[in-house]
Amino acid sequence: MAAEKRKWNNRVDDYLNRKAAERGHVIAMARMGATALERGDLDEAEAWFREAAAGGDRVAMGNLAHLLRERGAPEQAERWYREAASAGDSHAMARLGNLCAGRGKLDDAEEWWRRAAAEGRVEAMAELGRLLFRRGEPAEAEHWAGRAAEAGDVEGMITLGALLRETDRSREAEPWWRKAGEEGDAAALVKLGHRAEQRNDLPRADSCYRAAAAAGAHDAAVRLGLLLHRRGELDAAERWYLKAAKRGDAAAMTNLGVLANERNDPGEATAWYRKAAELGSVPAYTNLGRLAADHGNFQEAEHWFRAAADTGDVAGRRDLEELYRNAGARHRQEF
Fold first, then answer.
1. DSSP for residue 328
2. CB of 87 within 8 A of CB of 55?
3. Whole-angstrom Cα distance, residue 32 to residue 52?
4. DSSP secondary structure string, 37-98?
5. SS3 for 244?
6. Residue 161 to residue 4: CA distance in whole angstroms
7. Using CA of residue 53, residue 59, residue 62, residue 63, what is the dihedral sign?
8. Given CB 3.0 to 4.6 Å as the disulfide criterion, which of 3, 21, 48, 70 pairs with 28?
């Protein structure tokens, strides 16, 4: 009975709200837009938000801008974010900063993030910290990233961790990586790190992977190991590979084999590659084949290259063909 009464009351509220909106009541229009958005009717939501925004409702302006941005109309979105931000909406200021940054207008982004941060918007503090860190202004970057991190913002924690590590204060950074791992989703942190690595923002990638690893993501430990490996920090890379390998990660075992091979220790390299191969690592197959070929063991090399090629691996197929060319036509087989 109580549920039926609530449904009846909601229908009455919706009816009255629609009537008020149709008579030009701005707040009612904004509510109608929000209701339409909740049920997934984007066209109706946009229409009501436009009406309310035209009537001066700054929340509707911000909602309209967000909807337009999601629909792929950044120029229209920017116009309404500016309207809302100019009317004093700090959330719109932060969003406008993000939009400007995404369009490469970093000076505008900084201006709006500073205004939003001054209004207490934590997400703007985090973005401002990131911008200043990338620009080489660590002192002010630490101030804003630190404020965001203290307020519980994961982005702020990641930036602060990266900044502290880059200024040789890794011990101070570690609690923030752990905290970011506790507060954030490990898989999302790995994706953030991967995107940062693609942009060649290596300090951020490092910080994201450390936070994800602190949350228990062994693939983050492997990615961090690879990042350190490429930077020449081999001892640190090995430590992260070992952490992942102890959890049964085949990629980490393969990479430990690579490290051992780079140290001219083929025995240890073979041992790690075999462990990884037992778990189905295709790169371990090809690496075992190459080690065998280097030592003149044609049959073993053929076995491992064929194992890789049979999975569809291009490198394994290429290595197998190269082996046949070098060893003679009598060993060639049809694929």
1. -
2. no
3. 9
4. HHTT-HHHHHHHHHHHHHTT-HHHHHHHHHHHHHTT-HHHHHHHHHHHHHTT-HHHHHHHHH
5. helix
6. 52
7. negative
8. 21
171, two tokens: 């011990």
Length of the chain: 335
Query: Per-residue confidence at 142, pLDDT binned at 50, 70, 90?
Result: very high
Per-residue pLDDT of 4-57, as tens digits, reads: 444 444 455 565 666 676 676 777 777 877 887 787 888 888 787 777 777 777
Inter-axis angle of helices 314-327 and 282-294, to 10 degrees? 20
Short-list 86, 90, 112, CA closest to 99:
112
Q: Evaluate whether 206 touches 190 at the Cβ level (below 8 Å).
A: no
CA dihedral 311, 314, 316, 322 (to 10 degrees): 140
Amino acid at 193: G
Decide if 80 contacts 89 (C-beta within 8 A): no
Structure tokens at 59: 């929340």
> What is the C-alpha R_g of the chain?
28
pLDDT tens digits for range 207-224: 999 999 998 888 999 999
Distance CA 303, CA 315 (A): 14
Q: Is 136 exposed, middle or buried (0-12, 13-18, 19+ CB in 10 A)?
A: exposed
Residues 144 and 163: their CA atoms lie apart, in Å, by: 12
Residues 203-213 as b/e (b if ≥16 CB within 10 A, e otherwise) read bbbbbbbbbbb
Number of H helices, E strands in the chain: 20, 0
- How far from 75 is each of 48, 65, 102, 113, 319, CA to CA, in Å? 20, 9, 12, 19, 51
